[in-house]
UniProtKB/TrEMBL annotation:
Gene3D superfamilies in the cross-refs: 6.10.340.10, Histidine kinase-like ATPase, C-terminal domain, PAS domain
EC top class, as a word: transferase
Compartments reported by the entry: Membrane
Organism from which the protein derives: Candidatus Eisenbergiella merdipullorum
Designated name of the protein: histidine kinase
Catalytic activity, EC: 2.7.13.3
Length: 614
């Protein structure tokens, strides 16, 4: 199955052009990892944001509880100062039946001033004192007035408070929120009432009841500071679970089972619950001053909104960057493939005999290298075609010359033999020897039409040539040959050594002042190759002269034709790794080393047999 899928994918991939492959590679190698990285980053950021929101919620809850504790402690401290104030106790215990109106009014002003100086908290709406007093300042019922009020303890609300306080063991008894009816607001003012006894001095008996009415709106505003996200709410519950304050009444109505969830939170360890198919996070802390519970409720959806917004921004950035990358990748791939398409088009034109190279190559990249290689290949093809053309012409000329040379070659041999015998008849021994040597020289040169001879025959050809030159130059050339018998049977191209020896005589020894010298020939095998070293003690050469001799390019007209011919013959017949090497210095002679492969000569018969000898 995997092979089939791989084969189908490979077939589909091979059908696409290079530009499509580059764009797909861009998508797979860049876009997919970037998309994966975006989602992984979003998951990490989302978890981090939720943890940060939870931490921020907890910190806000703690700070709000500290501030709320401070407010409640201020109120409690103020009630302590009033409940045990001796001046107020003396005023309230004084019999006013014999006092004048002025004295009664002065006592009222003193009591009011003390109360107003003590209760300075902005959270308070009113302070009510339920105590016996003159009707000039003591009301029969509470009128919900703001500030300090004195009310008769015989009213129904005072009796209700006394009943509740009698069973309370703490300092202040906080009652459930209620609507305080006032003349200011027709709808009334929601307040939380705290009540405690005023103690008489010095026996600390109950003298009256002190109540403080705290604005619920103020507490709602304070605990609203614990809401760190929209649509989150915070609540203040007393020990009985009664809601004393809430940051948003409307939000509270959206969670009908929130009270049960909060009780589960207060009694358990988990702070994550599901209310009305919505997951919420609940944090809670306890106020030190009143042991009330301050609770914040945060929907997970609100926490996720920020992370979702972060995700959307990341996706937007991803798509913007991806679009820019795609445009850049498209332009780059188009630029690359345009050059490749042009190169492929020019390569196809070769089959229509268009061998023109590409001009104006720009850049040094791989495509430029391919174009340069293409141009090099075309130049080589053109050069090879020209070479083959000229080689064909040369071959035809050579065949013609060879045909002419092969016309009755025995005519030359027989003529030379005739001259040899005539010279002997007339007693011209020297002429007879020269003619004999010349006959043998040409027999070795022609070598029955074969191109390869044995090394032994090649050396014999050199020896005959040197003898002929000594007849001409008065035995001024001395030849030394050093060959081991095991290499004499190796093959060598004919007429390969003679031009080198000829150069040694004509351009080496004869250019000396004495015009005498020695030529030594040594043969040996090294690293599987046959090496033949031809040395002379002639005038030598400079490095520039050696370079001109070894340069076989058509642009170099200098140098000897014979040496260039030898170099080309060796490379054509044996390969480019074989050839000649020169070592020479002016005045110290020249050494030429011929390197060819070790090939055993198949024809062991000497070219000049016994019946051919002169």
């Amino acid at each position: 199955m995997i092979r089939i899928i791989r084969k189908i994918a490979r077939t589909f991939f091979y059908q696409m052009n290079l530009m499509q492959k580059l764009l797909i590679s861009y998508f797979l190698l860049i876009l997919v990892p970037m998309l994966l990285l975006t989602f992984l980053t979003y998951a990490h950021v989302s978890k981090t944001l939720i943890r940060q929101f939870q931490y921020s919620s907890d910190q806000a809850l703690q700070q709000t509880s500290i501030y709320l504790d401070k407010v409640m402690e201020e109120i409690e401290s103020a009630t302590d100062q009033i409940a045990f104030n001796r001046v107020l106790s003396d005023i309230f215990q004084t019999d006013t039946s014999d006092d004048s109106v002025v004295e009664i009014y002065e006592n009222y002003l003193t009591a009011s001033s003390l109360l107003q100086n003590v209760f300075t908290s902005d959270a308070l709406y009113s302070v009510e004192i339920y105590i016996e007093g003159d009707s000039l300042y003591v009301s029969e019922e509470s009128r919900g007035e703001q500030g300090v009020s004195f009310i008769s303890p015989d009213c129904s609300y005072a009796r209700e408070l006394d009943e509740k306080l009698s069973g309370h063991s703490g300092k202040i008894l906080y009652l459930a929120p209620r609507i305080l009816q006032t003349g200011i607001s027709a709808d009334g003012i929601p307040v939380i009432t705290g009540a405690r006894y005023i103690k008489a001095s010095p026996n600390y008996s109950n003298l009256g009841i002190l109540t403080v009415n705290i604005r619920q709106e103020t507490l709602n505003s304070i605990i609203g500071r614990a809401c760190v996200l929209p649509n989150s709410i915070s609540l203040l519950l007393d020990q009985n679970g009664t809601v004393m304050a809430v940051s948003d009444e409307a939000m509270l109505e959206t969670y009908p089972d929130l009270r049960e969830i909060i009780q589960d939170r207060l009694s358990g360890d988990s702070n994550s619950f599901t209310a009305e198919k919505e997951t919420i996070l609940i944090n809670a802390t306890t106020l030190d001053s009143s042991q009330w519970a301050l609770i914040s409720v945060i929907p997970y959806e609100e926490m996720l909104k920020t992370s979702l917004a972060t995700r959307n921004r990341m996706l937007l950035i991803f798509f913007v960057i991806s679009s820019l990358f795609y445009i850049v990748a498209y332009l780059i791939s188009r630029s690359i493939t345009a050059r490749i398409r042009f190169l492929a088009k020019r390569m196809k034109e070769i089959q229509f005999d268009n061998y023109a190279p590409i001009s104006n190559i720009v850049g040094n990249d791989e495509i430029s290298d391919l174009t340069n290689s293409y141009n090099y290949m075309l130049n080589k093809i053109n050069a090879y075609a020209d070479s083959q053309y000229h080689l064909g012409i040369t071959l035809k000329n050579s065949e013609l010359k060879a045909l002419q040379a092969q016309i009755n070659p025995h005519f030359l041999y027989n003529t030379l033999d005739l001259l040899h015998w005539l010279a002997e008849d007339y007693g011209a021994d020297e002429i007879s020897e020269i003619v004999s040597l010349l006959s043998r020289f040409y027999k070795l040169s022609l070598s029955r039409g074969v191109d390869v001879v044995s090394l032994k025959d090649a050396i014999q050809h050199i020896e005959i040539y040197v003898k002929l030159q000594n007849f001409r130059f008065g035995d001024s050339i001395h030849l030394e040959v050093e060959l081991s018998p095991d290499i004499c049977g190796l093959s060598i191209l004919k007429l390969l050594l003679q031009p080198i020896v000829e150069n040694s005589i004509l351009h080496g020894i004869l250019e000396k002042e004495q015009q005498t010298g020695t030529i030594s020939i040594k043969g040996y095998v090294a690293e599987g190759d046959l090496k033949i070293q031809i040395s002379d003690d002639g005038v030598g050469m400079t490095s520039e002269q050696i370079h001109n001799i070894m340069d076989v390019s058509p642009s170099n007209p200098a140098g000897g034709y014979g040496i260039k011919n030898i170099i080309e013959r060796i490379r054509l017949y044996y390969g480019s790794r074989y050839g000649l090497s020169y070592e020479s210095q002016p005045g110290q002679g020249t050494s030429v080393t011929v390197t060819i492969p070790c090939i055993k000569h198949t024809d062991q018969q000497a070219i000049i047999s016994q019946d051919d000898a002169v």
